[in-house]
Design brief:
Strand content: under 5%
Number of strands: 0
Distance between the termini: 36 Å
Helix content: over 70%
Radius of gyration: 20 Å
Oligomer: single chain
Number of helices: 5
Order of helices and strands: HHHHH
């Protein structure tokens, strides 16, 4: 007599899907705090923080997003959820997040890094004054990043509650 496996493959993929969301997007909720502390305590650290920001977007967030989508495709197919709103929403949000990271977040963080380097170098050892140009880039990062974080949280709610199922 065959016994049922202790863990079903579907549940493993579901766990991978959730873990990928946590790993990929968890750090993004810390970015505003990191930048606020750096700006107050040591503005000279801002260029390296922007480099860390866009490096994480490239090597952690984008691959994590790909894993979320791949696992989601399996889950939606296995559970026959393709016609449900929460799956369509999730897929749409994944496309939007990927596009905004590639088209806005990474290039803007690179510009912010260059501007912060320039502003820090211009001040020498004196008090750091960051330019309006730098401030505009960081406002853009905050606005788009905050929107992406809100989309992630809303999508988690839609997925857990199976909205539109």
């Amino acid at each position: 007599m065959l016994s049922a496996p202790a863990v079903v493959f579907y549940e493993v993929v579901l766990a991978v899907h959730v873990m990928a969301v946590v790993v990929a997007f968890g750090v993004t909720f810390a970015f505003p705090i990191l930048f606020a502390v750096a700006a107050r305590q040591d503005p000279r650290s801002l260029p390296v923080l922007h480099r860390i920001e866009y490096t994480l977007e490239r090597v952690l967030i984008n691959p994590g997003l790909a894993l979320v989508v791949i696992a989601g495709i399996y889950l939606a197919s296995k559970g026959h959820y393709w016609s449900d709103f929460f799956v369509q929403w999730g897929l749409g949000v994944a496309i939007v997040i990927g596009a905004l990271i590639g088209a806005v977040m990474i290039p803007t963080a690179k510009r912010a890094e260059a501007l912060a380097k320039r502003d820090v170098a211009a001040c020498g050892e004196g008090e750091i004054e960051l330019s309006d140009e730098y401030a505009a880039q960081t406002r853009r990062l905050a606005r788009v990043g905050g929107s992406l974080s809100a989309l992630v949280l809303l999508t988690i709610f839609f997925m857990v509650a199976h909205i539109g199922a």
